[in-house]
Amino acid sequence: MESGLTILGRRGVNFATKLGGIFIMLGRFIVSLKEVFRSLGLIFEQLYILGVQSLPLIVIISIFVGAVSAWQAAYQFKFIGAPLRYLGQAVGKAVVIELAPVLSAIVFAGRVGAGVTAELGTMRVTEQIDALESMGISPIRYLVMPRVLACLFMVPFLVVFANFIAILGGLVVSVIGVDVSSETFLNGFKHSFQIGDFINGLTKAAVFGLIIGIVGCYEGFNTAGGAQGVGKATTNSVVISSVLILVFNFIFAVILFRI
Amino acid sequence: MDTPLIQIRGLVKRFQSLDVLCGVDLKVNVGESIVIIGQSGCGKSVLLKHLVRLLEPDEGSVEFDGVDISGLSGPDLIAMRRRFGMLFQSAALFDSLTVAENVGLGLREGRLHRADEIERLVQEKLEMVGLSDAGEKYPAELSGGMRKRVGLARAIAASPEVLLYDEPTTGLDPIRADMINDLIVELNNRLNVTSIAVTHDMTSAFKIADRIVMLYQGRVEFDGRPDEIKHSDNGIVKQFITGSASGPIRVG
């Protein structure tokens, strides 16, 4: 029987190994960027597959994110007796700073991060990655770099859409469900909108994209043990990405949004 | 005495606490066709993967053309790997690419040939393996035997000096397996390459080898010509080549 301390120690070592592996993958990705122009075709292919094809999903979740944030804000306003003319302001801030970047990234991790890990994991267990290496083709340049770059660029791209659609969702709920005119809502939004918030939101989104890409590729490359291994790696990829997104989101909040 | 093209010295490989290779020594001369035999899980594929540095030894060394490959990196490692062609156990074809794209991938990424030249080479290799009409198909549309043949075409696409075959006949019916054996013999002769195959299929081994090496418990148990192995007095070798359940071989 292993003692609790032994189990804890082993888990600690595993965690440190994983974290180290993720940093090594990041380093190898950065080094591979010197061959970026050689892989433009592969990069554009991934931008389309991972990014553009995620757009419908991001649009759907954004409508409801905006809608629920307007509804909940109105509920709170009524509770504390705040005037509803500030609804556009509240929804706009929440969406641009937090909801659009974080929720889009979490959904992206579920759709794209999992997909990348499952694809690369299957390639690992069916020796396709070994085959690439044996042909003198760097799997980091051929597989990792295009996918990570696609995540890095496409999460902010999707967040731009998510911002717009979520505000629209909030507006519709405010007009139909809360009885706030569209003019009042939009005036409130315009009054509080700061380009700095928008840029900070996109910066966060780019970092979240990098996290999803690197973790997805790391887990895929380190898959072992057939179908079960691919399933486990895919779960790990989504869990690790989601946790890191929330941790980094807090770090960003402390650094970017000084109280 | 020939200078060996490949020289393996004291190769040791462990996976966690499992000792897979426990000090393998092997020389491969230019133009030889070697078959490495042994039980499933005895480290044959692991040994093969060390030759193109898909795995790193824990101890010992692998030399190719007089150079210790553990010291190679970057363009030198890529250049060394391009002198090899490898057929993987599951063929390891890229699912998202057509047969022609699979065969031409190494050439395209190597950037040493023009597009029309690559197309011609791909067609030539597909004809060599009897699949000249399959270029536009995807791997999922092919049978096991066809996939192996595409894997072979891909392995020979860049005109390598050494061909590595990992279990070339595993998973095929006896007739298709024999077709692959014939193809390997034909390619080895026609392309004048050095070849190393790992298998536990003795029919395949006797057909394609001019030297057979048997691995047992992580070491070389036998190294000799096919007629020598047939008359070997070694109980382990005898039991393996006759496929007998009783004998000195310990089955885990």
Mean pLDDT over all positions of chain B: 91
Helix amount of chain B: 25-40%
Shape of chain A: elongated
**Rg over CA atoms of chain A:** 21 Å
**Number of helical regions of chain A:** 9
Beta percentage of chain B is 25-35%
Order of helices and strands of chain B: EEEHEEHEHHHEHEHEEHH
Structural class of chain A: mainly alpha
Low-confidence stretches of chain B: none
Query: Into which percentage range does the β-strand content of chain A fall?
Result: under 5%
Rg of chain B, rounded, reads: 18 Å
Biggest sheet of chain B: strands, sense, closure? 6 strands, mixed
Q: Could you give a short account of the major beta sheet of chain A?
A: none
Number of helices of chain B: 9
The separation of the N and C termini of chain B measures: 40 Å
Give structural notes:
- The complex is a heterodimer of chains A (259) and B (252).
- Chain A has nine helices and no strands.
- Chain A is an all-alpha fold and 259 residues long.
- Chain A is elongated and about 65 Å long.
- Chain A starts with a helix and ends with a helix.
- Helices cover 37% and strands 25% of the residues of chain B.
- Chain B is built from nine helices and ten strands.
- In chain B, helix 4 packs across helix 5 (144-156).
- The longest helix of chain B is centred in the C-terminal third of the chain and has 18 residues, at 174-191.
- The A-B interface holds A 123, 126-128, 130-131, 133-138, 142 and B 49, 52, 54, 77-79, 81-82, 84, 86, 88-90, 92-95, 105-106, 109-110, 154, 158, 164.
